């Protein structure tokens, strides 16, 4: 499972070292794409189909939101193979989208890794911390509503 928070630095040629723990979990081929809130997502090739299925699994028809989700993520995706030192090159289009400068943060989130510009992540983390209890309350409300539907 991909867990934790690690810092890294982007080199001159937009190369960045994926944390070793993540490289072992992700495998020999990875997919890097745009993600929400101006960060990037990194997923192992073997889990990619499952990952995309989670985003659109509840929809049987290819509706406009499904098409736009596919365009946003699949249309920006790049396959990559980490080198012997666990480094990948972040394409210019993705680096620009996420506003990546020099220092980045890798966040392990179960089945995926998010890559953030370090300063942007610090802002986001601070905002999440302020709202953490409210977020938990909202998630609990959703779960209660789902449980009532099943009864």
UniProtKB/TrEMBL annotation:
Residues 5-47, 77-120 form the SpoVT-AbrB domain. GO terms for cellular component: cytoplasm; nucleoid. Keywords: Cytoplasm, DNA-binding, Repeat, Transcription, Transcription regulation. It comes from the Bacteria. It is found in: Cytoplasm, Nucleoid. InterPro entries: MraZ (IPR003444), MraZ_C (IPR035644), MraZ_dom (IPR020603), MraZ_N (IPR035642), MraZ_sf (IPR038619), SpoVT-AbrB_dom (IPR007159), SpoVT-AbrB_sf (IPR037914). The keyword Transmembrane does not apply. This is Transcriptional regulator MraZ. It comes from Candidatus Woesebacteria bacterium RIFCSPLOWO2_01_FULL_39_21. The lineage of its organism: Bacteria, Candidatus Woeseibacteriota.
